[in-house]
TrEMBL record, chain B:
Part of the ABC transporter complex (TC 3.A.1.6.1) involved in sulfate/thiosulfate import. It is found in: Cell membrane. InterPro entries: CysT_permease, MetI-like, MetI-like_sf, Sulph_transpt2. It comes from Iodobacter ciconiae. One of its GO terms (cellular component) is plasma membrane. This is Sulfate transport system permease protein CysT. It is a multi-pass membrane protein.
Length: 333, 277
């Protein structure tokens, strides 16, 4: 009899959450770890005050594309927060878990904050690196993650491309030549952004690391501010990490209301402030002004200039596309 | 009427049925899923994916480095097994246990540790770098990682055979006037050869599939230090499931062919030495 009641209790406890589920799973990428560590408690407090409901926020981190693949393969994510459009597009396209126009459902193309690619050099900048063209000089070791496997690497590639194309007399052919001479200087090609940081900071390989502005702040926390310098190039690419609700999952779990609020709160002054504190450039003008000192003004261009992510992926990063051709030409030299 | 020896396991049909069922679920089903998925590709497309120059470069590297690592372990593994069986020394059990460490350690940990040691600012790397030897982030690093990971295979297959070797054989050879080299070459070596080949085959097969340890030390430069498993991952990162399975099928077929070949060699060696049962 006792065993029976125990079994009933177990059965009940496993089915219960289905009724009053206020657990959200946010499937995110590596670099967002620090931001959501600050954001989640703030949102839980806000939600408790607003609705009286306790909410549990779970995180899953990893490479952006890898995370998207887990969601496609069935990871029950209520919301996804990725580092580029492509990854959420893939979830919409391959698994049909959310509509194709997901980016239109939130302001700013669903990207609550932005970042950009900066150059990180060794203390004292011994090689005198000031701008993208310094990366092509012989003897300068450039650390960039693989554009095939990393959004970070793709942004770097596009930033260098955009720089060369925008120079006086610049065009696509020259840009391609320029990118090839930057990538020729890469001694190690890591799979993701964090691995590239390890290669540069821990193994002390290379003279310059190209990565996101907010990753530079992580490096400062981890390795000490005195060990490197951040160089802002004359022009860079704006990175817009988008967020979205996974409709099929929230409808099944009955968490749509919470999930929507969770994402909208990113645009609230409180959410924007947390972003700024984590060195992500806020969309909110007032908060951007407040933190203006830590975000130097710099000329930026957006992915739209390349025709959006889908087109960019096809012309530059698909198998046999321009990046592959560049890699092949480098190997033959 | 022939006398039939009763087997320990009851019911041949039952045992065989169970064996096949188990094998199907654990091994054959996942592998056939791979083949079925790939069959969505046309031949031309399949060929185009698997013959891409970058992928071909990765085959050469993967199979070449694996072969090299297995060969290195063929010698060092035999040596380690020999020392562990034939000599008594302080701390022997400790070393014996250490041999299995590469098995137990997560391969990624091994990779990171090796990269740290052999990086240009690492414990060993800092002395080799000025001499012009680059190990980490080159194909040499890959061979070292594979050698590390596959060492236990040769040691653990050869060790029991060496242990069971009858001393009388060597004594007889000695009394007939054989030199020590002759004893090794003509008496011991043929006995352990099948085990050595098995160890070699296992090490080789394991090295081909290795990902975790290599990825951190390889440098992963296109055409230079990209292993085939990385090409598969890289296809997956682009949501190209078909392309990934196509390359996986190639690895599967080549690995199976190689293992078959080595098994054939083993069979031949055993038969030639008249020990085949």
């Amino acid at each position: 009899m006792r065993l029976k009641s125990l079994l009933v209790a177990i059965a009940l406890s496993t089915t219960l959450p289905a009724f009053a589920d206020s657990t959200l799973l946010n499937v995110s990428y590596d670099v967002m770890r620090d931001f959501y560590k600050d954001y989640n408690p703030a949102f839980a407090k806000y939600w408790k005050a607003k609705s009286g409901e306790d909410i549990t926020l779970q995180m899953s981190h990893g490479g952006s594309s890898k995370q998207a693949r887990s969601v496609i393969d069935g990871l029950q994510a209520d919301v996804v927060t990725m580092n580029q459009h492509n990854d959420i597009d893939a979830i919409a396209d391959k698994a049909k878990l959310l509509p194709a126009d997901w980016a239109k459902r939130l302001p700013n193309d669903a990207a609550p904050f932005t970042s950009l690619q900066v150059l990180i050099v060794r203390k004292g900048n011994p090689k005198g690196i000031k701008d993208w063209n310094d990366l092509t000089k012989p003897g300068v070791g450039v650390i960039v993650p693989n554009p095939k496997t990393s959004g970070n690497g793709r942004y770097t590639y596009l930033a260098a491309w955009g720089y060369a194309a925008k120079l006086p007399g610049g065009n696509d052919a020259k840009a391609r030549e320029f990118v090839a001479s930057v990538f020729k200087n890469i001694p190690v090609l890591d799979a993701g952004g964090r691995a590239a940081t390890t290669t540069f900071m821990q193994r002390q390989i290379g003279d310059v690391l190209v990565t996101f502005e907010n990753e530079a702040e992580m490096i400062a926390k981890e390795f000490g501010r005195g060990n490197f310098e951040v160089v802002y190039p004359s022009v860079s690419i704006e990175a817009e990490p988008p967020v979205a609700i996974i409709d099929k999952v929230v409808d099944k779990k009955g968490t749509r209301k919470q999930a929507e609020e969770y994402l909208k709160y990113l645009w609230s002054p409180a959410g924007q402030e947390i972003a700024a504190q984590n060195y992500l450039r806020p969309r909110d003008k007032a908060i951007a002004a407040k933190y203006a000192k830590q975000f130097p003004a710099i000329k930026l261009f957006a992915i739209e200039e390349f025709g959006g992510w889908q087109k960019t992926q096809k012309t530059h990063f698909d198998d046999g596309a321009i990046y592959d051709q560049i890699a092949a030409s480098i190997a033959k030299r | 009427m022939r006398f039939k020896q009763p087997s320990v396991l009851p019911g041949f049909n039952l045992s065989l049925g169970y064996t096949l069922f188990y094998l199907s679920i654990i091994v054959l089903l996942p592998l056939s899923a791979l083949l079925i998925k790939t069959s969505a590709l046309s031949w031309e497309h399949f060929w185009q994916i698997i013959s891409e120059p970058r992928v071909v470069a990765s085959y050469k590297l993967t199979f070449g480095a694996s072969l090299l690592a297995a060969l290195v372990n063929l010698f060092t593994g035999l040596l380690v097994a020999w020392v562990l069986v034939r000599y008594q020394f302080y701390g022997k059990r400790f070393i014996d246990a250490m041999v299995d460490l590469p098995f137990a350690l997560p391969t990624a940990v091994a990779g990171i540790a090796l990269a740290t040691i052999y990086a240009p600012n690492g414990w060993i790397g800092q002395y080799l770098e000025p001499l012009g030897f680059k190990i980490a982030f080159t194909p040499i690093g890959i061979v070292i990682a594979l050698t590390f990971v596959t060492l236990p295979f040769v040691v653990r297959t050869v060790q029991p055979v060496l242990q069971d070797l009858e001393h009388e054989l060597e004594e007889a050879a000695c009394s007939l006037g054989a030199t020590r080299w002759q004893i090794f070459y003509k008496v011991i070596f043929p006995t352990i050869l099948p085990a050595l080949l098995t160890g070699f085959a296992l090490a080789f097969a394991r090295a081909i599939g290795e990902y975790g340890s290599v990825i951190f030390i390889a440098g992963n430069m296109p055409f230079v230090s990209e292993i085939t498993p990385l090409m598969i991952i890289s296809k997956l990162e682009q949501y190209d499931y078909l392309g990934a399975t196509a390359i996986a099928v190639v690895m599967l077929v080549v690995s199976f062919a190689l293992l078959l070949l080595i098994n054939g060699l083993q069979w031949w060696a055993a038969k030639r030495l008249g020990r085949r049962k």
